[in-house]
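Folds abound. A case:
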Amino acid sequence: MMQNMRTHIETSTDRRFAIDTTFVLFFLALDLGMSFTSAGIDSILSVVTVAAFVVLPYCLPANGEKPEFAVWAAGRTLIALFGTALGFAFRQGIGSALPEVFIYLPMTLLIASAMASCSIQFFSVFRLRLAK
């Protein structure tokens, strides 16, 4: 009974692998889509940051088996592309369909999700684990 519960808990955490960094990736891509106007140094650095958030969370510690990297990275790339397109569309709607104050919403949500993700990652790194 106890072994069955442990197996169920470990397999259920596999589905939530790096979900907190996915929110950060989405809001970062949303902000990139809103600010992407030219091929300046700021746009290049934003693209590099989004690319890093697509790939690097795979290296974070996780319970159980990690999914295959190619499938995982393809899914995160789709999330980044969707966020960028949505950010571009959101930027077009500012001032006409949405009030000007909404221009700060993606960065506010990015900061909040990054703080939550950082807290979750620190907790998972520093929590005590039993030796096997």
About this structure: The helical segments are 2-14, 19-35, 41-55, 69-93, 105-126. The chain is about 70% helix and 0% strand. Residues 4-14 have pLDDT under 50 and may be disordered.
